[in-house]
Amino acid sequence: MDRTHELDISLEDHLLEVLNALPTILPDDLAVELSAFITPKSTVIPYHILLKISQWSRSPAGLKALQSSSLDPQSYSMVSLLAGTRTSPEKKFPAYVAKDPETERRQAANDKKAVSTVVNGVLSVAGTGFATWWASEHTGLRLEWV
Predict the structure, then answer these.
(1) Pairing assessment for the beta strands 44-46 and 8-10 based on DSSP bridges
(2) For residues 11 and 45, is the Cβ–Cβ distance under 8 A?
(3) Residue 64 region by backbone torsions, left for phi larger than 0, else alpha for psi between -120 and 50, else beta
(4) Is the pLDDT of residue 146 over 60?
(5) pLDDT-based confidence at 2, cuts 50/70/90?
(6) Distance CA 139, CA 134 (A)
(7) I want to staple 10 with a disulfide (CB 3.0 to 4.6 A). Which of 72, 84, 86, 128 is the partner?
(8) b vs e for 89-104, b when ≥16 Cβ sit within 10 Å of the residue's Cβ?
(9) Residue 58 pLDDT more than 70?
(10) How does the average pLDDT of the chain come out, rounded?
């Protein structure tokens, strides 16, 4: 199930600056979609619009249009477009549905047991060392081999 239409990306100033150069060179349908979010300035832009821009920038027509406008095609890859942004800043993530709640419950219990085992081991070693040091100082025992 494709949920990219549900995701929004924060429209940061650096992203807006890169996108402002595009409406005149984009295909008409994509330019109209983009213009709705950059004029007037919005705080978010849908992920699927950035995806379409990225795909267009890698097409032969997109590469030619960007190069003829002296724009760097690498600035329109998804990595460049998403750099420094936040996904779904309005916090509308779909609800998490566990595949098998019983298995996840058992895994959580096993994780707790593993952590307590490690802590028990560390405290046992530290406690034994301290007890040995304390006993050797306070019981009057001497080193027998000296």
Answers:
(1) antiparallel
(2) yes
(3) alpha
(4) no
(5) low
(6) 8
(7) 86
(8) eeeeeeeeeeeeeeee
(9) yes
(10) 86
